[in-house]
Structure formats: C-alpha cells, structure tokens
C-alpha cells in the first residue's frame, strides 16, 4: 500500500498457546507476571519468568552533526545502477492521477478546498521540533468541468461551481472526473462509451452522489434525485440511481431509515441463498447489503467474534484507569469519501484527527534537530522520486523487470551519498521503517515498480481515530446478522448447481458463496477448493505479498508523554532493528485512558513474535525511559499491556497485503475474480486494487461483491432453467426443511425473553438498546384448533416491555393495531429483517451451546 500510516493489531487464540497476545497486570507485577489473553478476553496463566525492572535510562551518547550537501538534485545517469532484476509483469502505463486535495468536514456538510496541499506542521502544539509524519504528495488541480445541459434551466446560474464541487465529491468516492469506471462500463450505464450521453451521465451520477452525501442519514429517493434534472434525462437518472444504489455508493450504512429499507430484487422468485465466509469488515458489509437486496444470507465465522483484523480490546488497571485499544485496524487513512466516515456520521460518532506533529527522539532522548530532520525527510522523498523516475524510464523502454524497492533506494542512496552522517542515517532509517510499517513488510520484499500502485486512488483528507475504537463499527454492522461463530470453513465445493461449504462436521448448501478470508489464510491453503482454484488465481495468491505488523499496547496509570501529540518516534543506531518500536501512537484523547501503542515493523515484527512478551514490554519501557528520564519525567510501569501476534493467528497469518517483487496491482484484480461461473466470489482487502490493506478497502470490496452477486443472480434468474426459483432443491432452506425450521422457531420460543397473555417475545441477541428488535409471537386461535396458527412480527424491545405491562390482550391488540400499526404475519411471510433476526437468535443459541 501507499506510505500513509496505518495501525497495528494484536490477536491471540485460546487453542494455540503460542499465538497469544499478552496482558501485563498492574505495577511491579506487570513485568513479572504476564498473563496471556485470547480473543475471549480470558485471562489465563501467569507463568512468565522473573524480570528485572531497572532498565537503563540512557543509551548511546552519540553527537550527531548535520552533514553537508547531498547530490540528489544532480541528474546522474540511471545506468549507474547495478540492480539485480527480476522478471515482472509487462509494465502498463502509470495509473491515472487523482491527486487533487480535498478536505471534508466531519459534520453533516462537506467543504472542499482545492490546492491546499501542504499540511500545517506546527499547529496546536508546544513541541519545539514538530515534524510531519506523512510523506508529501505532489498534487494536481482539478480540471475544469463546464456547466452541463443535463441540469434544468433554473439551476444553470450556479451550475459551474456546483458541478465542480459535485465532481470533487464523486472523485473523493473514487470516480474518475470525466470517464466511467470499469464497474459502470460493465453495468452498461450508457450505450456508447465516450459520447454525449456519457458526459451527461457523469454529471447526473456526480449530482446524485453529492446529493446523498449532503445528508447520509437519509434515504435518497429516485424522485428526489430527479427533482433538479431536466425531465428528458429521466433515463439517465434511473440508470445512475440504480447503479449507485446497487453498488453501494448511496443509501448504504447504518442510519435507521437505511437499515430498514429493503430492495425488491426478487419479486416473484425465491431469493437465492448466499453463504458468506468470514465476518470481518468485508463479510459484514457484504452480508448486510445482500440481505437488504433480498438474498437469504448466512455468515460463517471461525472466531467467536466479528471484526477479523478490526479488534478493540478493553484494557483496565487497578485504579480505575481503563481504555479501549485498537489492536488491529485503527486509523481511518483519509476521511474524504471514506465509507467508514459515512458510518461515523450516521452513528453520530465524533472523529479525532491524528495530528500531523510527530517529534522524533535520538537514542539519548534528545529531540532531533529540526533542520536535520527536514533535510533528511526531503532527501528521503527525493530518493523515492528517483525511484519513480527509474521506473518511468523502464516503462518507456518497455522493460519488464522488477527489483526490490529496498535495493533501488539503497543504490540511489549510495550513488547520491545520502545520509552518510550517523544521525542522518538514523533519520533515514526511521523513514524506511515507516515505509515498512505502511506496507507491513521489508523494503526488500516490495516491488519497486508497483509497490505504490494504489497511490493515485488514496482517500484524501485527514487521518482519524474513532474514539472508543473501530469495533463500534463492527458491532453496529454485525447487529441482527445471522452469523454462526466458531465455524471454521475447511473446504468449498462448487459446481453448476450451487456450492457446498464445509465447516467442521456441518455442511451448508447455497446458490453462491462469498469468501472473505484473508490472503494469509488462502496462502496457507487452509481452505480446500473443489475443483481447485484456476491456475491464474493460485499464482496470484502466491505472488501477492502478505506482510506483518505488530503492536504493544500499554495502559499507564497516567499520561507522562503529554496530551498535545498523537504520535512520536524514536531513532536507533542499528539499521537492522529500525522497525522495533520506532513509532508510538498516543490514544489518550480517544481511548478513554492513558494508552500508548508501540509499533513493530519490518524485520523486527517477525522477531517480535518469537520474543517473550515480558521481554518485549521491558524493551519498550527501556526505550521510553531513554526518552523521558533525561527530561526528568518518570515512566511508570504499565498497569496492563498486550502484545500482538498477527503472524501466528490462524485466521489471518499476518497483517495485510502488499505488492511483492514480481507481483502487480493486477493480482488484486485476479484475487477478486469469481470462480465456477459465478458460484464462488471473493472479497477482502487483498481483492481491492485501489484500496488494499485498509479497512475502507475491505468495506468497499464487500459492497463490490454484493453487487456482483446480484448481477449474477439476476442473470441466472432470467434463464429459467438455472433459476434458483425453478429448482427448489437448490434452496438453502427447501420445502422439506421448512417444518424443521418451524420446529426450530418453536424451540426458540420455549424460553422467551418475555411472555404475557397470548404473546411471547424474543429480544435480539446483539443489543440491549430499547430500540433494538423484538420478535413478537401471538397465537391466533381458530374454531378448529388444528387451524390455529402462530403469527409473528417485529416490535422494539421497549414496545414489547410496554405491551407486557398492559392489562389484557384486548388492550394490547388495540395498541398494536392503532398505535403501532403492527401487522402479524405467518412465518413464511415474515420480512427479511424478521428472518435475519431468527437466524441471529439461532446463531446466538448455537454459539452459547458451543462456548458456554
Ligand atoms: C495490525 C494491523 C493494523 C492495521 N492498521 C490499519 C489502519 O490503521 N487503517 C486501516 O485502514 N487498516 C488497517 N489495517 C488493515 C485492516 O484492518 C484490514 O485491511 C481489514 O480489517 C481487513 O478486513 P477483511 O474483511 O478483508 O479481513 P478480516 O478482517 O481478516 O476478515 C476475515 C474474516 O475471516 C475469518 N476467517 C478466516 N479464516 C476463516 C475460515 N477458514 N473459516 C471461517 N472464517 C474464517 C477471520 O476470522 C476474519 O473474521 C491493519 C491491520 C492490522 C492487522
């Protein structure tokens, strides 16, 4: 991925004692008595070896001087380089540049600010030596768009300005300024590519996106979209609206009105069944979207929790200090157009901008001189520019070779004599470590040609934290979804008639399956496919890189590092350990307590997994004391600490994808391709060429595949012989199983949450909120008892309780009918929402049986 910073994660599995993140309890004990934790927050054994807390405060006393000139500005011939080259895929032209800077406010309105590339480096801080953490990017100004005739006359006056800002919003969401995306072309949004219709379509499409983004808590209707467009362009509005809706660019997310909406995609035919494998962001988003499209959906998740590589741990100390630590994905890397930013707005969550200031400390605790710092940062960026030029020349000469990025950078460094001085070398190493962090691997593994192929698409705007952690999103997305936890999928068998998914001793039959497991799991071959995946896909799985990043999260009794910074870094004299705790994230302002997270990148991330947690935490404290003791600041022991082990996590086997030498962005596309003529689909961060290795990339891949599944389902439904409706045996729940289903429901109602009169109610297992769902059941007695039926409907938990408090069923029925507009229906007519609630209840009960 690109160089924008991201966050680490830890994780541990109860089954595998090696695979544990670790907690450090309070005080002295903290380092002597490390307790292992797992995904269930189970605190087990405290058998760590004795540790010595007297860590040395000062380290190297090097006197570092600013060096003279480097000669990076020289136009030295590239042929001087002696690089070991490796074959790479043919070089395509460089990707389109979408580098206009857009800034989006975090409130309901969006504002845009063209060309304000430089971010302020010294704001809101008293730090004497602030530094910018992010690599600067060159920028292009947005090309002008002229007023378009698609708009009605009364809007023409202000049209130029509006079209510009609407185009900017669409761009921030990932749409090109004046062309169609591949998805749009595939969806046939216009009959002639490049014609006048296309130009009009683009304006209409941008307009609809901007309209919805102006109030993401609303359901944007087709009529509303049409209001400001001339009526003769109704077809364009229809096309653009349907495209955007079905592909999840509008009306998506967690606003109440959006959660309730149901598309009528399968009127008159049995909706197809989809099994989603994995309840990470990609799987959750896809499952939600598919349910809202009318599919029947089931999610199989190996862990006992949703979220996958998004995991927030509650940390707690003796004196009431506590904090929420994101041990997986943490930073929203660019808020403009980011779908997670939309969720935050819908849920009313504030965002905390990660401040750009990042002081760097020398091993002796001194702050790095700002002049040297700026100089080396500039040199580092120039080295990268040199690499860009080299690959540009390779593209022009059509040379299909690749070399490791690290090798190219080192060669240029030597050629231009950059960072010969020890302090400069340490600074350069810090930047290289930062690059290894962003890509979760050693620079020696990265493709020089394609490592930053996603740069042109990167989300603009601030990097942000979600106060309380990203699991807020996960829980909101997972609410009421039929997720079966503890179901590790071992094989997937697919054919013309459907898909069989095997998890333990259970098999699940479905029309289509969506596999969202991490690339690390695919690389391990942990899931067998029958027939085997196509060679092309297997090769892409092999080629694409999947790297490692780890974290140590430490909850301290108080904040000793100051409230005014969110990050600080430390330099090391040893290049080979440059990624070891090189960057610290402070979560004091967002996590609820004095929480510090140290990152471990590159080589160090691998070594870290073999170190004992006691030693790791001791080492971090040694570094922190090296920085703060010389300033007279006491660094206390943490009251709790944990270390991640993403590489040993059998549901991940690493942190996120990167473009390895010999691989390219095309491999992401190949990973995204479905197999078995539209039977098995793939989503997840490693299937998203534009936004790999990110939370929003995972989110968008889930949306993408939901749209693909809908397209294939429609195609199949229209060819009657293979329509799921015409072959009931293909249904996930067929007629024969209906009775079993009903008896299952009877079993659920054997232990209702509430019972009163002839009513009983079950609460959704995923929420205690008064407005969460309750499934109400009522017996309709008939004269002939054998004709009596159970009827069902959804109310809220609060309404169910209020009904329970009323006197007599007559009053209840009156309230249901007159006040709540409640209509009780037979089981088979229950809404999709009702069905998914039943599935959640069943899943929760099953999970209780497994885990209690
Ligand atoms: C340490 C770390 C720091 C990161 N920092 C950032 C950041 O700051 N910003 C950012 O945007 N992104 C960050 N990321 C990346 C981001 O977290 C991921 O890209 C994203 O969460 C991936 O989502 P996903 O749905 O593709 O995969 P996952 O979240 O991994 O979901 C896949 C799911 O499949 C399940 N599964 C696996 N195998 C099986 C099986 N056989 N059967 C059933 N279920 C199975 C897993 O348990 C998991 O729940 C970070 C990641 C890590 C690890």
Task: Tell the overall outline.
Answer: globular
- Terminal CA distance reads 41 Å
- Spans with pLDDT under 50 lasting ≥5 residues? 3-84, 92-154, 720-735
Widest beta sheet: strand line-up: 10-21-22-23-20-24
Question: Over the alpha carbons, how many angstroms does the gyration radius reach?
Answer: 28 Å
Number of strands: 30
Helix fraction, binned, reads: 25-40%
Query: Could you tell me the mean pLDDT?
Result: 80
Biggest β-sheet description: 6 strands, mixed
Give the count of helical stretches: 24
Structural class: alpha+beta
- Portion of residues in beta strands equals 5-15%
Ligand catalogue: flavin-adenine dinucleotide
Family: Belongs to the flavin monoamine oxidase family.
InterPro entries: Amino_oxidase (IPR002937), FAD/NAD-bd_sf (IPR036188), Flavin_amine_oxidase (IPR001613), Flavin_monoamine_oxidase (IPR050281), Homeodomain-like_sf (IPR009057), SWIRM (IPR007526), WH-like_DNA-bd_sf (IPR036388)
Biased composition (Basic and acidic residues): 1-16
Biased composition (Basic residues): 131-140
For this entry, give a set of tags.
disordered N terminus, 30 strands, 24 helices, alpha+beta, binds flavin-adenine dinucleotide, globular, 5-stranded parallel beta sheet, single chain, 852 residues
Explain how this protein is built.
By secondary structure, the chain is an alpha+beta fold. It has a 6-stranded mixed sheet with strand order 10-21-22-23-20-24, sandwiched between helices. Strand 14 (489-495) and strand 15 form a beta hairpin. The structure holds flavin-adenine dinucleotide. Residues 6-9, 277-283, 300-303, 308-310, 328-331, 333, 488-489, 516-518, 521, 526-527, 549, 551, 646, 651-652, 655-656, 684-685, 693-695, 697-698 line the site of flavin-adenine dinucleotide.
């Amino acid at each position: 991925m690109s160089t924008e910073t991201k966050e680490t994660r830890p994780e541990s599995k109860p089954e595998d004692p090696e695979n544990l993140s670790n907690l450090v309890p309070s005080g002295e004990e903290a380092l002597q008595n490390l307790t292992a934790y797992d995904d269930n927050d189970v605190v087990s054994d405290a058998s760590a070896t004795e540790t010595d807390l007297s860590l040395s405060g000062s380290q190297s006393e090097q006197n570092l001087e600013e060096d003279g000139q480097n000669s990076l500005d020289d136009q030295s011939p590239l042929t001087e380089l002696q690089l070991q080259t490796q074959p790479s895929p043919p070089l395509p032209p460089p990707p389109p540049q979408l580098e206009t800077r857009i800034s989006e406010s975090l409130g309901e309105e969006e504002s845009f600010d063209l060309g304000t590339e430089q971010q302020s480096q010294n704001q809101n801080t008293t730090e004497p030596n602030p530094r910018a953490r992010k690599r600067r990017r060159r920028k292009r100004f947005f090309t002008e768009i002229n007023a378009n005739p698609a708009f009605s006359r009364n809007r023409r006056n202000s049209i130029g300005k509006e079209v510009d800002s609407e185009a900017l919003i669409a761009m921030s969401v990932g749409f090109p300024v004046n062309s169609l995306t591949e998805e749009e072309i595939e969806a046939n949004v216009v009959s002639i590519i490049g014609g006048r219709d296309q130009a009009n379509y683009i304006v209409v499409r941008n307009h609809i996106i901007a309209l919805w983004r102006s109030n993401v808590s609303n359901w944007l209707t087709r009529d509303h979209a049409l209001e400001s467009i001339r009526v003769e362009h109704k077809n364009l509005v229809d096309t653009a609206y349907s495209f955007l809706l079905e592909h999840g660019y509008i009306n998506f997310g967690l606003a109440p009105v959006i959660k309730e909406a149901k598309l009528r995609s399968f009127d008159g035919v049995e909706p197809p069944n989809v099994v989603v494998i994995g309840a990470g962001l990609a799987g959750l988003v896809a499952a939600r979207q598919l349910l809202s499209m009318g599919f029947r959906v089931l999610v199989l998740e190996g862990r006992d929790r949703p979220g996958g590589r998004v995991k927030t741990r509650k940390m707690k100390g003796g004196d009431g200090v506590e904090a929420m630590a994101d041990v997986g994905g943490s930073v929203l890397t660019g808020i403009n157009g980011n779908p997670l930013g939309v969720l935050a707005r819908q849920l009313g969550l504030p965002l905390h901008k990660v401040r750009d200031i990042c002081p760097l400390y020398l091993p002796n605790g001194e702050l790095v001189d700002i002049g040297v710092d700026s100089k080396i940062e500039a040199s580092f960026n120039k080295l990268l520019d040199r690499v860009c030029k080299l690959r540009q020349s390779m593209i022009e000469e059509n040379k299909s070779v690749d070399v490791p990025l690290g090798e190219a950078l080192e060669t240029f460094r030597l050629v231009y004599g950059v960072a010969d001085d020890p302090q400069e070398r340490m600074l350069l190493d810090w930047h290289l470590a930062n690059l290894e962090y962003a890509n979760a691997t050693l620079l020696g593994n990265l493709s020089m040609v394609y490592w930053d192929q996603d740069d042109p698409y990167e989300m603009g705007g601030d990097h942000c934290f979600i106060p309380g952690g990203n699991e807020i999103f996960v829980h909101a997305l997972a609410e009421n979804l039929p997720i079966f936890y503890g179901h590790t999928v071992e094989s997937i068998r697919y054919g013309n008639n459907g898909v069989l998914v095997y998890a333990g001793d259970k098999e699940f039959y479905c029309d289509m399956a969506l596999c969202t497991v991490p690339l690390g799991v695919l690389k391990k071959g942990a899931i067998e496919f029958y027939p085997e995946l196509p060679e092309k896909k297997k090769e892409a799985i092999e080629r694409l890189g999947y790297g490692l990043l780890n974290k140590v999260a430490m909850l301290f009794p108080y904040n000793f590092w100051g409230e005014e910074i969110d990050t600080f870094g430390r330099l090391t004299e040893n290049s080979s350990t440059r990624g070891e705790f090189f960057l610290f994230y402070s979560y004091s302002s967002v996590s609820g307590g004095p929480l510090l997270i140290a990152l471990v990148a590159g080589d160090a991330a691998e070594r870290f997994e073999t170190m004992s947690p006691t030693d790791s935490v001791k080492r971090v404290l040694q570094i922190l004391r090296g920085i703060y003791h010389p300033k007279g600041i006491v660094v206390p022991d943490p009251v709790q600490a944990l270390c991640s082990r993403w590489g040993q996590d059998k549901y991940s086997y690493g942190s996120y994808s990167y473009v390895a030498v010999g691989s390219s962005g095309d491999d992401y596309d190949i990973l995204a391709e479905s197999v078995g003529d539209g039977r098995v689909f793939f989503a997840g961060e490693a299937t998203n060429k534009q936004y790999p290795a990110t939370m929003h990339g995972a989110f968008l891949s889930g949306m993408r595949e939901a749209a693909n599944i809908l397209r294939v389902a429609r195609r199949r439904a229209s060819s009657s012989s293979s329509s799921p409706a015409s072959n009931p045996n293909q249904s996930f729940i067929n007629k024969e199983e209906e009775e079993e289903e009903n008896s299952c429901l009877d079993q659920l109602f054997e232990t209702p949450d509430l019972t009163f009169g002839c009513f009983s109610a079950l609460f959704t297992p995923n929420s205690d909120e008064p407005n969460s769902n309750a499934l109400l059941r009522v017996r309709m007695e008939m004269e002939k008892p054998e004709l009596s039926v159970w009827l069902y409907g959804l109310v809220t938990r609060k309404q169910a309780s209020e009904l329970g408090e009323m006197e007599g069923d007559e009053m209840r029925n009156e309230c249901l009918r007159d006040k709540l507009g409640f209509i009780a229906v037979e089981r088979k007519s229950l809404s999709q929402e009702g069905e998914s609630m039943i599935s959640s209840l069943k899943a929760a009960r099953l999970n209780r049986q497994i885990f209690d």
